[in-house]
Structure formats: structure tokens, C-alpha cells
């Protein structure tokens, strides 16, 4: 397999892993979350410090590209004052189990984790 072929496979595997993790998180959220009709309307947005739309972005800005599986989640309820005001957002911390390190930078700031907790 050529070097480019290996990279393409790794990035495809990374994309599948990210998709699988997102699907698992989404399924878990849907299966155990409250009825969406009972929740107030919320407007939330996010902004990222680095680009991350392409595999090239991942290897340009990341220390590691991993294949992971969602294994747990913890719900962060809104504070009582937020509930009283009719606002607040239900956050989650998702625990990802690293199945495989697909790529690492030549000089990573830290080693690849075995478990990664992702606030969302």
C-alpha cells in the first residue's frame, strides 16, 4: 500500500470512528433524554479555535487522530436560577474510549489518551 493509500485509509477510518461515536452519542441521547416537546426552545452555537473540517486540518492542528467509542455520558443540569428564569442548557460530558491511535504528530504536546472526556 502506498503512503498516500495508507493515509487515505487512516483518515477514512478516523471519519468512520467519528461518525460512529457521533451516532452512538446521538442514539444514547435520544434513548435516555427527555421528550424534546417538553424542552424550551434554545439557541446555541459554537466556535472552534482551529479548523477541523478536513483530514488535512486534523493532521495540521492535532496531536493525535484517534478511533474512539462512546462508553458513558454524564448530564449537567441547568442551575436552579436558570430553570427559574426558563433558560439554561442541558450539557453532557461524553466519555470516549480510545480504540486505536490512527496518527500522531512527530512532536505531540502529550501522549494519546486511553480515555477522553468530551464536554458537549
Question: What is the element layout, followed by pairings?
Answer:
Blueprint: H1 3-32, H2 55-61, E1 64-76, H3 80-85, E2 91-104, E3 115-119
Antiparallel strand pairs: 1-2, 2-3
Write structural notes for this entry.
With 120 residues, the protein is an alpha+beta fold. It has helices at residues 3-32, 55-61, 80-85; strands at residues 64-76, 91-104, 115-119. The chain has a three-stranded antiparallel β-sheet with strand order 1-2-3. The longest helix is centred in the first third of the chain and has 30 residues, at 3-32. The termini are far apart.
Individual helix count = 3
The percent of residues in helical segments reads 25-40%
The strand line-up of the biggest sheet is: 1-2-3
Counted beta strands: 3
Range of strand content: 25-35%
Low-confidence stretches: 19-30
Arithmetic mean pLDDT: 75
- The shape, in one word, is elongated
Note the run of SSEs as H and E: HHEHEE
